[in-house]
Amino acid sequence: xxxxxxxxxxxxxxxxxxxxxxxxxxxxxxxxxxxxxxxxxxxxxxxxxxxxxxxxxxxxxxxxxxxxxxxxxxxxxxxxxxxxxxxxxxxxxxxxxxxxxxxxxxxxxxxxx
Length: 113
Description:
- This protein is mainly alpha-helical.
- The protein has three domains: 1-32, no CATH class; 33-66; 70-113, no CATH class.
- Helix content is 65%, strand content 0%.
- The longest helix is centred in the middle third of the chain and has 21 residues, at 36-56.
C-alpha cells in the first residue's frame, strides 16, 4: 500500500536503524527548546544553595543564631515584608549590631567622634 513512497521508505529505514540501536529518529536528534521557567527555577535553586553556604561562614551568622535560628529565611522575610522600610532597617541594625549610634552620640555631644 505504501510501498514505493519515498518518504515512507525513508521512515522505514530509520525505524529499523533505531530498533537496532544504530541511530535515533531525526526528530529526536534535534535539541528541544529549553523552558525559560525551568532555567529560572534552576538558577534560583543554585543561587539559594550558594547563598546558604556563604551565609554559614559569615561572621554575622554566629550573631544571628541566638536571635533567630531561621534567619533570614521564609519566616523572617514574611515578618520583614510586613514592616515599613524604616522599621525593617532598624530591626536589621539591632539584630546585626550595626547601629549608627556613634553619629547620634556625636550629634547630641555625648561622644567626640
